[in-house]
Amino acid sequence: MTFKVLTDAQAAHFVEKGYVKIEGCFEKAEIQDWLDLAYLRLGYERDDPTTWAEDRIHMPSMNRRAVADLAPKAWDGICDVMGGAERIEGEPSWGDGFIINFNKDADDPYVPSAKRGGWHKDGNFFRHFLDSPEQGLLTVVVWDDVLPNSGGTYLAPDSVPKVARFLYDHPEGLEPGSFGKMIEGCEAFVEATGNAGDVYLIHPYMLHSAAPNPSGRPRFITNPPVAFKEPMNFNREDSDDFSLVESVVLRALGVERLDYRITGKRERYYTEFRRERERMLVEQKARLAELEEEVV
Ligand SMILES: O=C(O)CCC(=O)C(=O)O
Ligand SMILES: [Fe+2]
């Protein structure tokens, strides 16, 4: 298979471990405005931690840019793992809906383990099947440098085959909150550290968890899903046509191809989470409008 940006080693890493890190996808200077604006939107002072009212916050997006425009290398990488732009739904864009970990559990000496809570599979807005298109890929976009032990999301690569088997055994579908228990028995944990502009492309089955941030530096990421146009196809005639995302599933199940039929109904949910982001956006726009009035 030929790729636009992935090296063969990176492709093999994605298939084996379920994720790959693409470095240097954009310059921080390109998005510095978004970072600065986040503080204004929240009414926090960057240099005064006593103003950080929440230890961790998932913002709504106020601004967006097409991935292909802001981070062409990341876009090419996404196409590489998903089997080409023609299989991807819409024109994916990234927004400034940052998940900021200011100082969550700063006093908690952290050792990642299956015993800790918080492990989940992303995609709270649909019923999950083995071939679900809605969350074709999980991404972690690093908007500002994340050093080790500074709130970087933990990934559990061992969870991918377990989740594959779980979904395979449930053709009737599973609710979004069903997957956390698949962390049991997982032993490898990877901290998603990086520099501003780095992007992790992660298999949609990957369980992951937020970590404490004792560093004093707020951690800025987003994790936008990328959707497939069609459900995944595990029964392609030519095995070269399987996307890497599909190959991971086949490998996990120990088969070369699979004629898979779901028995339940695909469903999408309008979540309380989304309603809350909409409410926050209204509040943040009002705060910015007030600030503007003060300036005039
Ligand atoms: O904050 C993090 O590190 C993880 C966030 C996450 O996984 C989520 O919001 O779904
Ligand atoms: Fe998540």
Describe the structure.
With 296 residues, the chain is α+β, with helices and mostly antiparallel strands. It has one domain: q2cbj1_9rhob like domain (Jelly Rolls). The protein contains seven helices and twelve strands. Strands 1, 2, 5, 6, 9, 11 and 12 form a seven-stranded antiparallel sheet that branches. A three-stranded antiparallel sheet has the order 8-7-10. Strands 3-4 form a two-stranded antiparallel sheet. Helix 1 crosses helix 6 (244-253). The longest helix is centred in the C-terminal third of the chain and has 24 residues, at 272-295. The model has no long low-confidence stretch (mean pLDDT 97). Bound molecules: 2-oxoglutaric acid and fe (ii) ion (FE2).
Ordered list of secondary-structure elements with their pairings:
Layout (H helix, E strand, L loop, with lengths): L7 H10 L1 E4 L5 H15 L13 E3 L5 E3 H4 L1 H11 L10 E3 L3 E3 L35 E6 L11 E3 L2 H10 L21 E2 L7 E4 L4 E3 L9 E4 L2 E2 L17 H10 L18 H24 L1
Antiparallel strand pairs: 1-9, 2-5, 3-4, 5-11, 6-9, 6-11, 6-12, 7-8, 7-10
Helix pairs in contact: 1-6, 5-6
The structure holds 2-oxoglutaric acid and fe (ii) ion (FE2).
What key attributes describe this structure?
single chain; binds fe (ii) ion; 14% strand; 7 helices; 3-stranded antiparallel sheet; 12 strands; alpha+beta; binds 2-oxoglutaric acid; Jelly Rolls; 296 residues
What fraction, in percent, of the residue positions are helical?
A: 25-40%
Fourth-tier CATH superfamily name: q2cbj1_9rhob like domain
| Shape category | globular
What is the rounded distance between the termini?
A: 58 Å
Mean pLDDT across every amino acid position: 97
CATH C-level class: Mainly Beta
Uncertain runs:
none
Percent range for β-strand residues: 5-15%
Ligand species:
2-oxoglutaric acid, fe (ii) ion
Structural class: alpha+beta
CATH level-3 fold name? Jelly Rolls
Largest sheet: 7 strands, antiparallel
Count all strands and give the number. 12
